[in-house]
Write a structure and sequence with these properties.
Layout lengths: L2 E10 L2 E9 L11 H6 L3 E4 L5 E6 L6 E8 L12 H12 L2 E3 L4
Antiparallel strand pairs: 1-2, 3-4, 4-5, 5-6
């Protein structure tokens, strides 16, 4: 871990959250939101049989709720030269099977 940045304002679809950010290097993601964010925003994940997923967030300041679609993340690390062939599919599923909010930060 490179450090912590405190009181960072993150705005998602008009909702503003104040977060403590852990800065790490060399990750396959731009931003990883964990339990503190899920608790603060009362986050609920909605999984459909089709494989689609959305999340609902509640603004802690106003109580307004918003439903946000997600999209499958693209995995830049899944390159043929990066892994042995027998490990590639497992790595791809493990590291790239996540969903991301359809939002430009």
């Amino acid at each position: 871990m490179l450090g912590i940045v405190e009181n960072v304002h993150l705005k998602i679809s008009g909702m503003e959250f104040k977060l403590q950010i852990h800065v790490v290097g060399d990750t396959p993601f731009d931003l990883l939101l964990g339990h503190p964010f899920f608790s603060l925003s009362s986050c609920v994940t909605h999984d459909q049989m089709s494989g689609d997923q959305s999340i609902s967030l509640t603004d802690p300041n106003t109580g307004i709720q918003m439903l946000l679609p997600t999209r499958k993340r693209e995995c830049p690390l899944h390159e043929p030269w990066f892994l042995k062939e027998e490990d590639a599919e497992q790595f791809h599923h493990h590291r790239c099977g996540a969903y991301m909010i359809q939002e430009d930060f």
